[in-house]
Design a protein that fits this description.
Layout (H helix, E strand, L loop, with lengths): L5 H7 L8 H10 L5 H23 L1 H6 L2 E6 L2 E7 H4 L9 H14 L4 E9 L8 H6 L3 H18 L8 E5 L12 H7 L1 E8 L4
Parallel strand pairs: 3-4
Antiparallel strand pairs: 1-2, 2-5, 3-5
């Protein structure tokens, strides 16, 4: 027999190999087992990356024009949609172009099981001044919330996103994305944000 570790000597002798304690110790160190939460978190992160790719593909034109912004913030994926793409001025019912846009988003989400789909309405700092609009939406609170609610209803009814995953909320002008001092800033602030968070099983 050739000299060497016990396992090598037995192999040359035609005997079964029995790893030494040293071998077993180093094998376990070289190949650590992941905990179940770690595996689940990794899968959730992969799902988030996949839905990001689907949305980027479905919304290519809007992303190029800048009317839609797709951004990942930690374990959340956020779509910021310009209100001008979804609604007429002072309106809460989506335009035909708006429904087409939200439907494409819903299709991209169908095979993705997020923990929540949070839809948040935002406005600029301008007050609601139209008498017609004021009758139903006295302030930006009501306007932003109504817009978010209509997007949520459409995602559930037309996009077939489960209702128990959907949340609608309105923030009025109090979470601006830009400075309201300029027309460009006010345009950025008039938006609907859809935030996705993947399921992480405990």
């Amino acid at each position: 027999l050739k000299s060497g570790p016990v396992g090598v000597a037995r192999a040359h002798a035609g005997l079964p190999v029995v790893p030494s304690a040293f071998d077993r110790t180093h094998t376990s160190l070289d190949m650590p087992e992941l905990s179940e939460p770690a595996i689940t978190t990794a899968r959730a992160t992969t799902d988030l990356a996949r839905v990001s790719e689907k949305l980027a593909s479905a919304l290519q034109d809007e992303l190029k024009r800048g009317t839609v912004v797709l951004e990942q913030r930690g374990d959340k994926l956020t779509l910021a949609l310009s209100s001008g793409e979804l609604f007429g001025k002072g309106r809460v019912i989506m335009t035909p172009a708006g429904t087409t846009l939200v439907k494409r988003i819903g299709v991209a989400l169908r095979k993705f099981r997020p923990q929540s789909v949070e839809v948040a309405g935002h406005t600029d700092s301008a007050k609601v001044v139209s008498p017609t609009t004021q009758e139903r939406f006295p302030t930006n609170w009501e306007l932003s919330t109504a817009r978010a609610t209509n997007v949520v209803r459409f995602l559930q009814e037309q996009g077939r996103v489960p209702g128990d995953r959907l949340i609608a909320m309105g923030f009025a002008q109090y979470r601006p994305a830009a400075n309201n001092a300029s027309a460009e800033g006010r345009q950025q602030n008039r938006r609907v944000e859809i935030t996705l968070q993947p399921v992480v099983q405990q």
